[in-house]
Amino acid sequence: MNRSRVKDMERLNQWIGASIKRGAIAVLTHRNGDMDTVGSACALAKIIGPSARACGIHLSTMARTMVNKTGADFLILDPKNPTWPRNLAGIIIVDAAGPKQPGINLPDVPKCIIDHHPAGESFEMNSADIEINWDTCSTAEIIQLWAETHADARIDNQSRMLLLAGIITDTGRFRHANASALSSAGKLARDGEIDFSGFLEDMESIELNNSQRVAIAKALSRVQTLDAGRWFLSHTRAGTNEGIVARALISAGADVALVCRRVQGESRLTARASRNATRGGVHLGELMQQMVVRSGGEGGGHAGAAGWTGKIDVTDASSGFIALLMSTQGGADGS
Asked: Global pTM?
């Protein structure tokens, strides 16, 4: 670990220690509630101790299943009227680098931002606030490193499973993992004596209810394909589980998968890219940030997985993304 990251871990530990002395800490997820943000929040709160609690406005299907499986404590907040402890001393926001991403108004307390990708709009930072933003494959890796450095004795098997699940999902089942992510995952599995293959198999077999299965089947039945420049794109609309639909399209041979959804007056784009596409020049996170410049809203993510949300209609949003993808240089073979 380089000197800069050592200092970041010390700053984080000091911020947590000072906050505990003043009162409670809320560990807040982003509004989409995926496995990396939820796993990071639950593990961090558990390792900090009874003064901290993980919370957010939504749990994805995967995250809900893992929270139930591990018995993790997660509080669902009302986005219009969130309830905070009276003695709230600080809030840690994980996997969300922009003020719109948590989906709620934040209380006026010191905040700590922990993330691994940039956002189109940054939080307003005060003297009591800190931000840690590293170029890692997942936020879970940052939480793991802090815990190993400053709270190793308090890392239990529940926390290891949650962090491991976060790394697995944010790397696209390791398709977009680097050496650091693989090392982190291996250490979590080894130290927790987790059956790695069995754990992966359990995650792959997350049980969907009948309505979710029907919605996914409908989304797959209306898939359209086109050559977006030199990229083979599969795109569709879905009412739920956009990530599962996008992953299925990649498995079926698409270079890039785009799934659109209209929810609560906003259009949402969810995109995934194959390993060959990212090696060939596609960076979905950067494309979604370009969508922010083009159409407002908020967006970002990784090279192989990203999203965008905004007020324009779905057709305009998908057309804008496709145009941006077509301008990406290179090809699926990396040429």
From this structure: 0.80
Q: Which residue has the higher pLDDT, 139 or 303?
A: 139
b/e map 38-48, b = 16+ CB within 10 Å:
bbbbbbbbbbb
- Tell me the domain boundaries of the chain: 3-204, 210-326
For the segment 323-331, the average pLDDT, to the nearest whole number, is: 78
Model confidence pLDDT, tens digit, residues 129-154: 999 999 899 999 999 999 999 999 99
Q: Is pLDDT at 119 greater than 80 in this prediction?
A: no
Burial letters for 270-293: b for 16+ Cβ neighbours within 10 Å, e otherwise? bbbbbeebbbbbbbbbbbbbbbbe
Looking at 3.30.450.90, 2.70.70.10, 3.90.1640.10, 1.20.1530.20, the CATH number of the domain 3-204 comes to 3.90.1640.10
Residues in CB range of 257: below 8 A, 6 or more apart: 233, 234, 235, 245, 246, 247, 249, 250, 271, 272, 273
Position 239 pLDDT exceeds 90: no
Strand partners, 234: 225, 257
The reply to whether CATH 3.20.20.80 applies to domain 210-326 is no
